[in-house]
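User: I'm new to structure prediction. If I give you an amino acid sequence, what do you actually give back? Let's try with this one:
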Amino acid sequence: MKRRASEGFDQNGNHEGTHDIIVGGVAGGASCAARLRRLDEKVEILMVERGPYVSYANCGLPYHVGGVIEKESSLLVADANTFRSQFAVDVSRNASGRSAAGCAVPDAVTRHAAGKKGGE
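Assistant: Good question. You get back a string of structure tokens that encode the predicted 3D arrangement of the chain. For your 120 residues, that looks like this:
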């Protein structure tokens, strides 16, 4: 898919030194981060996830609750280290992001465990 240079992309459809922040992991955010990496190997990606898990099998939750899948860890698909090593995606867990004018901004990341605000 070709993108216009006026949208922050060069004429080959690659990002021009951009930094993308994905607010939310698990289903949508993790898929988005992996897809973005496949589209552009040079873009810097930060995925901000409110909880401790970056990616898990949502479809298995009823089986876990019903006792068919006993260990919660069996539902984990990928952790933060997997995203760093396989997709070169930085991950901020136990944090949340807010948007400003429709765009996530780095100084709007809140680390829940530390209660601090600021970019990483």
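You can read the tokens as a compact description of the fold. Here is one thing that stands out. The chain has one domain: 18-117.
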